[in-house]
Amino acid sequence: MKWLKQILFLAAIVLAFSSRAGAQNPVCSQFSFTVANGLTATCTASAGINAGQILMISGSGVAPLTAGATSGAFAVALTQASSGQTLVVLISGQAQISSDDACAVGKYIIPSSSSAGNGHCTSLPGSAQ
Predict the structure, then answer these.
(1) Residue 8 class from Cβ within 10 Å (0-12 exposed, 13-18 middle, 19+ buried)?
(2) Which structural domain, as residue segments, surrounds residue 82?
């Protein structure tokens, strides 16, 4: 029964990110899950994106998470793209995240308050994690 719950959870994620109310084209498509890579998807960029940036849904695509945001993060860019191009994102799994400061193993990553799409290392978890 546990595996059924996991499949239903993954199906809910796919539906949530593959369509928008009233939209003709999905923000993300081509979802894939492997044990090695986690849950990935192909998404359309609505702004310039670099690999490692934390992303949010923005307009008709994905964009770097706004500096100082405390919610809205949903994926990490695995590839780069210009506005209107497609990129591969990681929704669940492990990825390298761009950071606005030096980061060490064992630290928490929260959204940067000064740099859009970047993380910020901290010793203690914050409300924005």
Answers:
(1) exposed
(2) 2-97
Which amino acid, 103? C
Q: What are 29's two structure tokens?
A: 């498509």
Q: Which residue has the tokens 């010793």?
A: 123
Let me know if residue 125 belongs to a domain.
no
Q: What is the pLDDT of residues 17-71, one digit of tens each?
A: 554 444 455 788 888 988 888 899 999 999 999 999 999 998 889 999 999 998 8
Domain annotation covers residue 119 = no
Query: Could you tell me the CATH number of the domain that includes residue 52?
Result: 2.40.300
| pTM of the predicted protein model | 0.78
How many domains, the chain?
1
Classify residue 42: in a domain, yes or no. yes
Q: Quote the tokens at residue 5.
A: 């719950």
Torsion sign (Cα): 115, 121, 124, 129: positive
The token duo for 92 is 């669940």
